[in-house]
User: What shape does this take?
Amino acid sequence: MKLLVFIFCLVFIIFGNIFSAPKLRFENGDTYNWGKIRSVDEPLKAKIKIFNDGDDTLKIFTVKPGCGCTAAPLDKYNIEPNGFATMEVSLIVPKSPGEHTKSILFRTNDPTKEETYFYLKAEFVPPMKFFPDSKVMASNLLIGDTSLYKVVLKNTSGEDIIIKEPSVEPKDVISTNLKPDLVLKPDQEFVLEIKISPNTIGNFSGKVKFKTTFPDLPRVEIPVLGIVTGFKK
Assistant: This one.
């Protein structure tokens, strides 16, 4: 009788070990979404829990972000059954408007998720849009001539935006029609006119700057780049 009990226990232990396995689960699914954001001046941050719902230790061998704009350190890489680890994610969102998605590759000993991905999402909706671009690329600039470039500023914030302290660099080369205390209503556009009157031949670099009353858009810089090729005939 004792032998049968011993054999039964031994079989139970052996088969129990065979069928025990870790089970990875990300908190709130395989995606963390910040939703719509207004500013990308600072990296987005979040803490994500990674659970082991299995009955064996979950071993995380690799945590590999998809690009250099993501960081994802863990506080531990071996997670006991019914335990969890914490992943601190940091995402630098590109300044281009729209939805951005980055991935993090996990390699683990979970037999159903030996390789799996966790996704980070955010939609950048800037309070102000620029058309055709947020910088000016000038070409064939001539000394003795004035070139005019236009940038459309559109208020997409849903609130009034007031322009403060407009300025240009260098002052003897660049001028604009931007005035202090200009009010842009929601969805209103303003055509920014940038005039360039170069005085030296070679690569040209300048900027148009202003501040605003909108919290997520404290300051704006519009680079003005170009090449001065010669003199006006």
